[in-house]
């Protein structure tokens, strides 16, 4: 990062921060903001999630289902009518209506000679109460379902967003592991190469550059060659009959990296044993 | 002019941010004006216990008049009331009870201000959020000048404060971010205000000796410095995590030196050194020797130590989640900032390895300090404001009265944290003309206006419930 071209009068913190963020982004592999992650979660789901496990259009489908099953779409209930003992005798004709109502009241005893209107009034009254009760109950259930729906949606949304984020992170970490393996491999090889070119002063005991332990100097190039062959043989045995193609490319590479490290330390200590 | 400085605590050994600020300003104003400090007998800001004798005394060039605090703070009660007003819908009565609970409750101080307001030309009130400021300003609104020292914490969202911000004669802000926040919270744009901050006594270069500090504390090799209270609210826990993680990537050793009182366990690492409380001389020696100053705080209304670091020509690495610090870094062109670990690692790496950049940033810092925070500049701004008010003539007390008893009982005031969340955030990058000329290079990109309203996501510690 010390590659900023600088003059004291041209230093600009905004530019420096931009460069630093670009650098961070480059190192991370990808740098997503919250909004980008959400966008990825909704648009490019199939690229990050296992399509067999989670459907890519899951959220859209969920939204569609919500809109069809919602009670909001059902037409509004009719107004509840009020019914009481006076309703049957009422009239809506103003002054004439009130005269009519009075007349009906007077004739009520006569009506009761033919039928009993009281059970009828009672039943209709009860029906009105029941209508109100069911309307309120359905309203409550509907509210409850809507709240639960919102919670479900939020949970599902968060799960999908988190899954996407983890998926991206996992991919980046895999890349980093690969990169670290490569670097480790390179460092090991470099170490071994340096070990080969070191010339020790006469009389001093050679030191392994990888383990920094003194090793016996046989000074025989044939021995070194034998050691190399033995190391390669051992590495071949460790990899087993499956070789590098055992569990896919990544597993193979990781295994290879570890074995290289082991091989290097073997290589450093073997001459003293032989 | 006869001036009064009203502050919650005062003394040579009291080093709280606002209190130190008040002392510096009082001592400076005393050179040209008759200054009297009105304060309480408290020394501890947690309990407000009366520890100093009431009455008059002289500290340096100013006369100090102390008044007793009528009751100590009950932290449990204050915590409960803070939760009520910050997190739930409540009434103005609840807020006034919260203010009483916060303290320092000194009826004698408020009564003195009420009786003797006419004796002073102007009264400077420090820290808007305390009992003495709220009631003192109501007692002398026509002569009150407020130095709010407001941070981005929920107290700014309480309903009792906007009339105070609108009712004072003038406001002396610490930063552009603070001014924008108070404007948004109270709509007090019509009240005269200026971004001033505070200066600091910077010793001459010849008297600063980095080797002296290294020798005194046996510090070898490069180090970055943190000065201040070592506290979670100051971002120190995150700093420790980030710095320890950063150690794994280093090729050459870098130490973190901490100076200040520790309220947090310090990691047991040879690369993190705690030197305890240090004197001003040692502080400047340490600043001279460090690679950069670390400012991990989430809440600052003005970081005096950052300004001192810039005065010493040192770059600052600040927490980007503190609007004020980020704004200062952008305006000064003298510091970098981070919002997560990767940015922390990159910025710290750059500051400690790129000598040219660190020097250039430091030079910008020096220029920024000279242009904005040198004492002549600060004194000039105070004098200009006093002259402006004097020319405008005496103003009647225009502060809005408290609503009636019934209105105060209504629980319709929204939670303060909700109000705070709706205030615009982010650094105010455009310095208003004439208030803070930033030493910008000619070829740099144009600075846009203040960023729009932006909600932050997590990461900050929970908001403080008072100091």
Can you describe this structure?
The complex is a heterodimer of chains A (274) and B (467). Chain A has 274 residues and is mainly alpha-helical. Chain A contains 8 helices and no strands. Helices cover 69% and strands 0% of the residues of chain A. The longest helix of chain A is centred in the middle third of the chain and has 81 residues. Chain B has an 8-stranded mixed sheet, sandwiched between helices. The longest helix of chain B has 18 residues. Chain B is globular, with a radius of gyration of 22 Å. Chain B starts with a strand and ends in a 46-residue tail after the last helix. At the A-B interface, helix 1 of A face strand 14, helix 13 and helix 14 of B.
Assembly context of the chains: heterodimer
Gyration radius of chain B, rounded: 22 Å
* Overall outline of chain B: globular
What characteristic shape of chain A results from the CA principal axes? rod-shaped
Number of continuous helical runs of chain B: 17
Unreliably modeled segments of chain B: 431-459, 462-467
Structural class of chain B: alpha/beta
Sheet having the most strands of chain B = 8 strands, mixed
Largest sheet of chain A: none
Q: Report the radius of gyration of chain A as a whole number of Å.
A: 43 Å
Q: Termini of chain A, distance in Å?
A: 47 Å
> Largest chain interface and its two residue counts?
A-B, 22 and 28 residues
Count of DSSP E strands of chain A?
Answer: 0
């Amino acid at each position: 990062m010390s590659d900023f071209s600088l003059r004291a009068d041209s230093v600009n913190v905004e530019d420096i921060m931009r460069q630093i963020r670009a650098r961070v982004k480059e190192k991370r592999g990808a740098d997503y903001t919250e909004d980008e992650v959400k966008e990825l979660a909704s648009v490019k789901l199939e690229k990050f999630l296992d399509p067999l496990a989670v459907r890519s259009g899951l959220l859209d489908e969920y939204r569609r289902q919500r809109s069809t099953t919602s009670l909001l779409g059902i037409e509004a209930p009719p107004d509840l009518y009020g019914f009481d003992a006076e309703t049957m005798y009422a009239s809506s004709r103003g002054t004439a209506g009130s005269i009519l109502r009075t007349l009906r009241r007077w004739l009520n005893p006569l009506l009761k000679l033919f039928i009993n209107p009281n059970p009828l009034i009672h039943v209709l009254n009860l029906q009105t109460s029941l209508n109100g009760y069911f309307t309120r109950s359905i309203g409550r259930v509907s509210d409850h379902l809507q709240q639960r729906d919102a919670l479900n949606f939020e949970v599902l949304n968060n799960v999908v967003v988190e899954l996407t984020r983890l998926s991206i992170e996992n991919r980046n970490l895999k890349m980093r592991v690969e990169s670290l393996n490569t670097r480790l491999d390179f460092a090991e090889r470099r170490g071994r190469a340096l070990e080969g070119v070191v010339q020790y002063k006469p009389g001093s005991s050679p030191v392994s550059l990888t383990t920094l332990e003194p090793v016996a100097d046989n000074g025989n190039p044939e021995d070194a060659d034998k050691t190399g062959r033995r190391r390669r043989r051992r590495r071949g045995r460790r990899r087993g009959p499956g070789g590098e193609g055992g569990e896919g490319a990544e597993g193979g590479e990781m295994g290879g990296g570890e074995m290289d490290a082991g091989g290097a330390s073997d290589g450093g200590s073997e001459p003293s044993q032989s | 002019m006869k001036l009064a400085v009203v502050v919650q605590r005062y003394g040579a050994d009291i080093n709280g941010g606002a209190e130190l600020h008040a002392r510096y300003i009082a001592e400076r104003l005393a050179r040209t004006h008759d200054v009297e400090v009105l304060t309480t007998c408290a020394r501890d800001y947690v309990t407000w216990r009366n520890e100093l004798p009431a009455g008059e005394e002289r500290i340096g060039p100013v006369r100090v008049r102390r008044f007793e605090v009528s009751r100590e703070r009950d932290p449990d009660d204050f915590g409960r009331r803070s939760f009520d007003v910050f997190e739930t819908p409540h009434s103005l009565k609840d807020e006034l009870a919260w203010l009483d609970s916060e303290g320092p409750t000194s009826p004698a101080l408020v009564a003195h201000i009420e009786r003797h307001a006419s004796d002073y030309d102007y009264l400077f009130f420090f820290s808007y959020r305390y009992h003495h400021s709220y009631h003192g300003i109501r007692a002398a609104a026509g002569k009150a000048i407020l130095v709010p020292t407001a941070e981005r914490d929920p107290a700014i969202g309480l309903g009792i404060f906007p009339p105070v911000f609108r009712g004072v004669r003038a406001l002396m802000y610490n930063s552009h971010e603070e001014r924008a926040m108070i404007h948004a919270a109270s709509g007090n744009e019509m009240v005269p205000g200026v971004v001033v901050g505070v200066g600091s006594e910077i010793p001459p270069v010849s008297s600063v000796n980095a080797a002296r500090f290294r020798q005194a504390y046996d510090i070898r090799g490069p180090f970055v410095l943190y000065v201040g209270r070592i506290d979670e609210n100051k971002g120190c826990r995150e700093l420790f995590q980030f710095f320890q993680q950063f150690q794994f990537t280093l090729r050459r050793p870098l130490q973190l030196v901490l100076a200040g009182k520790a309220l947090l366990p310090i990691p047991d690492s040879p690369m993190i050194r705690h030197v305890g409380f240090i004197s001003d001389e040692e502080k400047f020696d340490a600043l001279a020797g460090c690679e950069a100053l670390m400012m991990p705080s989430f809440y600052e209304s003005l970081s005096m130590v950052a300004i001192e670091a810039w005065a010493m020509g040192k770059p600052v690495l600040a927490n980007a989640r503190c609007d004020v610090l980020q704004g200062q870094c952008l305006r000064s062109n003298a510091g970098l900032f981070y919002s997560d670990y990767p940015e922390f690692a990159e910025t710290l790496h750059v500051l400690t390895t790129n000598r040219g950049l660190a020097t250039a940033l430091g030079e910008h810092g020096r220029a920024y300090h000279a242009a904005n925070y040198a004492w002549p500049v600060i004194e000039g701004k105070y004098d200009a404001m006093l002259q402006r008010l004097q020319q405008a003539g005496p103003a009647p007390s225009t502060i809005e009265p408290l609503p009636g008893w019934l209105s105060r009982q209504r629980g319709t005031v929204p939670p303060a944290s909700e109000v705070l969340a709706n205030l615009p955030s982010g650094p105010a990058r455009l310095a208003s003309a004439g208030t803070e000329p930033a030493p910008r290079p000619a070829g740099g990109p144009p600075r846009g206006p203040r960023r729009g309203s932006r909600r932050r996501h997590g990461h900050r510690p929970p908001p403080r419930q008072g100091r």
